[in-house]
Structure formats: structure tokens, C-alpha cells
Amino acid sequence: MTSPSSFFVTPWVRRLLAANVVVYLLSVTVFTGLWFANLVAFSPAGAADRPWTFGTYLFAHAGLLHLAVNMLVLLMFGPAVERRMGRYHHRQPALELVREVIAERWRERITSHQLVDFNNHPATTMADLRIVLQVALERATAQAQSRQD
After folding, report:
1. Residue 23 CB neighbours (<10 A)
2. Crossing angle between the packed helical segments 91-105 and 126-148, to the nearest 10 degrees
3. What whole-number distance in Å separates Cα of residue 118 and Cα of residue 104?
4. From 7's CA, which of 44, 76, 82, 115 has a CA 20 to 30 Å away?
5. Are 58 and 49 within 8 A, CB to CB?
6. What are 49-79's pLDDT values in tens digits?
7. Would the pTM count as exceeding 0.70?
8. Residue 56, exposed/middle/buried by CB under 10 A (0-12, 13-18, 19+)?
């Protein structure tokens, strides 16, 4: 009898991964102007005039590293969260854990948007990203175990 794989990408995680990659590829090949980034990016000041950005900001990425880190976080946390919570709202709890770790350890690298500022800061290394993801994963595991007890 075979055991289920510990790495299983759930349907909504797969869809979000594909949509993010497609939008990123379009933004660097077809829609290369700054107008596209401004069209889809969320800004609290412009939210009333551009309400669609509440949904489109999920697909706006400042660069390849930003996309890669978001997709890695989605792959790490998305399937477990989707199975636990259902097929919606799977990104928020994982991102909150990641934001907490960044705020605790690297507050000086943040000016306005935690994830974007941290990902794009010149001092941020792959080792820093690994630490953030490892600590967030440990916290998620501890939270899941405490809920089971």
C-alpha cells in the first residue's frame, strides 16, 4: 500500500501558481510599460478610484525574486492551509507568519510594504529568505500541533 505524498499541490494552489506565472510573464514580455504595474498594483490612496486592485494586486510582482519567494511560500503553506480552511483564504495566514518573522528580525529593511521591501532590499540574501521561511514553517507547525492537542 502506498502512502500519500507529503508534497501535494491542491487545486487552488495550482491555479494561483499558474495565474501568477502567466501574469508575470505577460508583464515582462507583452505589457512591459509601467502603466501595467500601476494598473494592477494596490495603493490604499487609490483604492476608491481603482477598486479592481483589491483582487489584482495578488498577481503584481516587483521582480523575479518577489515572484519566486511568493510562489515558494504558496507551495510551502498553501496546500496545508487549503486543506485545513477549505479552498479559500489560504494565502493570508502564511503571509502573516512570514510578515511577523520579517518584522521581528529585519524591521530596518521595511519602509512601507513588508514583503516587497524585504525581498527587494539590497542586503537581503537567500540565507535571510531561508531563515524567514524556516521560522514561519516552524511556527505554523507549532500552531497546528497546539490546535490538535
Report:
1. 19
2. 120
3. 12
4. 115
5. no
6. 878 888 787 788 888 898 899 899 888 888 8
7. no
8. middle
- The one-letter amino acid at 134: Q
User: Which grid cell is 73?
Assistant: 511560500
Separation of alpha carbons 124 and 117, rounded Å: 10
Distance CA 1, CA 3 (A): 7
CA dihedral sign, ordered 42, 10, 135, 144: positive
Q: Which residue, chain included where needed, has cell 529568505? A: 129
- Distance, in Å, from the CA atom of 98 to the CA atom of 124, rounded to the nearest integer, reads 14
Residue with cell 501568477: 20
**Which residue has 537581503 as its cell numbers?**
124
Cβ–Cβ under 8 Å, residues 20 and 71:
yes
- C-alpha 123/C-alpha 60 separation (Å) is 23
Whether the CB-CB separation of 94 and 87 falls below 8 Å is answered with no
- Reading the block at residue 136, the C-alpha cell is 514561519
Distance between CA atoms of 90 and 81, rounded to whole angstroms?
A: 5
